[in-house]
Structure to design on (293 residues):
């Protein structure tokens, strides 16, 4: 089973081009399934639909419906892989149905909350220039936090007003920045070159106080600090700003396809989640403003 798992993980990384976090989640799910097979003294190559159904039935005991759905996706992909490798003739998971789960709207900040958050950093200090630039750039481009912290100076074209980033599945995309983000990054770089000694030659755009590339955890702490200062009481993460970027664009009339390209979604159905957000916003306005809500 270890050999099959290794081959499958290599397939996900190399041929499917999945991100490391996705591959790790799939690997954990597959390990869970293999443990189940061990209790039945079964091999994946000798597994039938009845055993698959029994296994899926055990998942709902301690997993959310979303996690169950992901586990089912892993099983489908794994057995399709075995078929493609001529290890089995037919997938025993081909008839599995994905469970329905409650739709959860992503956390979105209002435009006023975004403005308050971005203006919190004290730009009389080097960290303030950096933090303002990170917040401006995140909201201007809708980058994932991993994409933001991995940006190199060479990825940002301030004159042309765009940046390039490598997203999920090693897909490169180009995203416009907007003038406020351009100004903030320019100010940060000018301050960095004139005052920062540690990491002055680093190719990475955003550095911590030790001159090393900013980490996800480090930026999450920055967001949390400024959210408190801005008196934003709702839960907020770096991803909240990405959600806000997409929702505010759609509210202003941007087309779904353009937002999909800027977010780097492979499938437009992923982007469609934000149409639900804008509908909820319209309903809220209707309730507040209509004389007969």
């Amino acid at each position: 089973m270890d050999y099959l798992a290794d081959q499958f993980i290599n397939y996900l990384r190399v041929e499917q081009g999945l991100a490391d976090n996705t591959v790790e989640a799939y690997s954990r799910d597959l390990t869970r399934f293999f443990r189940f097979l061990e209790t039945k003294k079964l091999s994946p190559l000798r597994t039938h639909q009845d055993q698959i159904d029994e296994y899926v039935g055990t998942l709902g005991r301690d997993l959310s419906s979303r996690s169950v759905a992901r586990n089912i996706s892993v099983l489908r992909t794994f057995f399709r892989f075995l078929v493609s490798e001529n290890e089995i003739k037919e997938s025993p998971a081909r008839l599995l149905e994905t469970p329905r789960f409650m739709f959860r709207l992503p956390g979105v900040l209002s435009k006023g909350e975004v403005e308050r958050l971005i203006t919190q950093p004290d730009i009389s200090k080097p960290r303030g220039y950096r933090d303002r630039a990170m917040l401006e750039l995140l909201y201007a481009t809708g980058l994932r936090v991993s994409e933001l912290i991995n940006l190199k100076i060479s990825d940002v074209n301030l004159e042309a007003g765009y940046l390039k980033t490598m997203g999920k599945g090693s897909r490169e995309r180009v995203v416009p920045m907007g003038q406020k983000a351009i100004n903030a990054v320019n100010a940060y770089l000018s301050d960095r070159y004139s005052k920062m000694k540690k990491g002055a030659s680093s190719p990475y755009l955003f550095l911590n106080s030790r001159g090393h590339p900013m980490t996800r955890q480090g930026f999450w702490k920055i967001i949390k600090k400024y959210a408190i200062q801005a008196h934003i009481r709702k839960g907020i993460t770096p991803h909240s700003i990405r959600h806000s970027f997409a929702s505010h664009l759609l509210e202003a009339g941007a087309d779904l396809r353009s937002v999909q390209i800027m977010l780097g979604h492979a499938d437009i159905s992923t982007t469609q989640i934000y149409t639900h957000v804008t509908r909820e916003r319209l309903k809220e306005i209707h309730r507040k403003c209509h004389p007969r809500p």
About this structure: The beta strands are 156-157, 162-166, 172-176.
